[in-house]
Predict the 3D structure of the following.
Amino acid sequence: MAELEFTEEGRAAIRPDQLIVLGGNHRRKAVQRYVDKLKKDIRGEEALLKGKSSDAVEEVDALRTRIRVLKEDVKQACMWAVRIYDLGAFYCGTS
């Protein structure tokens, strides 16, 4: 996941102590850890699936369902946004 970086012009426009970030690098790191764990779980489930006999239909179906759910969880976890407010501009009446 990408880190948030400002251009020189953006940094110059931000008044000191007036930038509020709702969600940020701490969230990005937490999400990355969560996604890494999900991917590890997927690899584990896929290894179990490879070891199952095709005769174990119910177990194979359950593992495939679990893998599908985990992959969807990864996809959902990777979609998030950061909202930033420049209170300096807000209080000065500019936007």
About this structure: The mean pLDDT is 79. The beta strands are 19-22, 83-86. Residues 17-91 form one domain.
